[in-house]
Design brief:
The chain has 22 helices and three strands. It is mainly α and 503 residues long.
Length: 503
């Protein structure tokens, strides 16, 4: 009727998309990515960080406390040994580890392997959910459904999310908490802001670097002129998270500020080198544009988001800058794959890429293919294999150099190391390797450790349980096929209901 106001478009948590549309996008992305990742689930954890936190989780399940074995931890209170790492992931992993220990007992397999496999399932599920959150955050920023869906797929398969989903590290959990707290805080209700504040606090217990999240989100809410109680929430959540972490320190080492790690790792010397290296260097621990090339287009997405939602765009960039600057002061030298410390900032950056115009989509897909090729060797091998070979060959210092020559970097050696691991796997009986579980390799023979001599997928170990290998291959193929089918369904639905992006 003339003069009647038009019917308002339905909204869901501040988004112009219906709850049904949002649920379909989130469901298809989470399920599809999880199925594909599960096809390449690793058969065990290699390295100190992951095994350290797995030991904590096992102790919580079997002993009910945080102490671990003498050879696995650092001497702390009451003559007990404790992990120097973070509490939240081992706590969350307890149900998965408990299932693994029960399965190991029933299948007569080494508990270390089976518990680790079940724990790694958790990281895959967390990363799959993070993929969904990339799309939801993009929709909240004003993206079309197709743009949000594409950006989420590019996150899952074109960045180091593909690698760290298969590792028992704190980064996948911190990524999830970071993007969830960001998503909720960008909402419009006090309940959403309260949820974002709680998650900002939990981020600190996932890894202390999560301390950057709360202050950025509080600044955003202040600038948006929300009530002061809302704006202070994320900051107070961070304070509470820090207090919980101090209590964890006291429980372990009798000192609120001692985590067992070396405070000397923070240094001003070399800060600029690390600051630039985290983005531009192809060496160990750096190279965001090398290992995660799709994020390059986040620059274009940011420019577009800044025009319509400047504070929201700045909040995402602020969290990224917080992680970037914080770790520029950290003298990292561990066996990392790419810019491990920037992984928690990836979901926000990839959400920005959802806002690019359709004319950039081919470029985004091309960069995703490059990112997949860079990270794909880890689907069939442990990325640490190259570092192990470098250690055996006494050129580990060069391999760990942030600004190493390209010929010495993991990025340009991963495929060769993966090929050699597969060769070793074909030349060894998996049952014999399983019998060596826990045996330390001799000096100069680190690359002969049992997990570095198998194809790094769960189904390769099935013959040790009396199950033919072909059964595992078929199951893996079904998982990949099912994942692709679910993702395709979600894409077709997004194309039907999403308006065409601007050109």
């Amino acid at each position: 009727m003339a003069g009647q106001s038009p019917i308002a478009q339905p909204t869901f948590l501040g988004s112009p998309h219906s709850p049904q549309q949002i649920f379909k996008i989130a469901f298809c992305l989470a399920v599809g990515v999880a199925l594909i990742y599960l096809a390449f689930l690793k058969p065990g954890i290699w390295g100190f960080d992951g095994n350290d936190m797995l030991a904590v989780s096992r102790s919580l399940v079997t002993e009910g406390d945080f102490s671990i074995g003498r050879g696995e931890g650092v001497l702390g209170r009451d003559g007990q040994y404790y992990s120097i790492r973070y509490p939240l992931l081992p706590i969350v992993a307890m149900p998965f580890v408990a299932i693994g220990l029960a399965l190991a007992n029933s299948l007569n397999l080494p508990a270390t392997y089976v518990a680790a496999v079940c724990a790694l399932v958790l990281c895959i599920l967390i990363t799959a959910l993070t993929t969904s959150m990339v799309a939801l955050l993009a929709l909240r920023l004003g993206s079309s459904q197709t743009g949000a869906y594409l950006a989420a797929i590019c996150f899952a398969f074109g960045t180091t999310a593909l690698v760290y989903a298969r590792e028992f590290f704190a980064e996948p959990l911190l990524s999830f908490l970071t993007v969830c707290s960001l998503y909720l805080t960008l909402g419009k209700t006090s309940r959403a802001h309260a949820g974002g504040s709680i998650l900002a606090g939990l981020a600190v217990t996932a890894k202390p670097a999560g301390i950057v999240v709360g202050p950025v989100l509080s600044a955003y809410l202040l600038l948006k002129r929300y009530p002061l109680r809302n704006a202070l929430g994320p900051f107070l959540g961070t304070v509470m998270g820090f207090m919980l972490y101090m209590a964890y320190n006291y429980l372990r080492f009798g000192d609120l500020l001692s985590s067992g790690q070396k405070a000397s790792n923070f240094a001003l010397e070399g800060t600029l080198e690390r600051f630039l290296g985290l983005i531009f260097s192809p060496g160990a621990g750096g190279g965001l544009i090398w290992y995660c090339p799709p994020v390059i287009l986040a620059i274009i997405g940011f420019r577009k988001a800044f025009k319509s939602k400047p504070l929201e765009a700045l909040a995402i960039v602020g969290i990224f800058a917080g992680y970037w600057v914080l770790h520029s002061f950290w003298e990292f030298g561990g066996w990392s794959w790419g810019p491990r410390f920037l992984v928690p900032a990836l979901p926000g950056l990839m959400a920005l890429t959802a806002l690019i115009d359709r004319k950039w989509w081919k470029g985004l897909i091309g960069l995703t293919v490059l990112g997949f090729l860079a990270n794909a060797p880890s689907l069939v091998s442990y990325y640490q294999r190259y570092y192990a070979e470098a250690s055996d060959g006494k050129y580990l210092t060069k391999a760990l150099n942030l600004w190493a020559a390209p010929t010495d970097t993991p990025l340009f050696n991963a495929w060769g190391a993966a090929y050699r691991q597969i060769q070793d796997a074909l030349a060894n009986n998996v049952k014999d390797i399983i019998k060596q579980s826990g045996a330390a390799p001799g000096p100069g023979k680190l690359a002969t450790a049992e997990l570095l001599r198998i194809v790094a997928v769960w189904w390769w170990l099935l013959p040790a349980a009396g199950i033919p290998l072909w059964v595992g291959v078929v199951l893996a193929a079904l998982l990949v096929g099912g994942g692709v089918w679910v993702l395709r369904l979600g894409w077709l639905d997004a194309c039907k209901t999403s308006p065409s992006p601007e050109t």
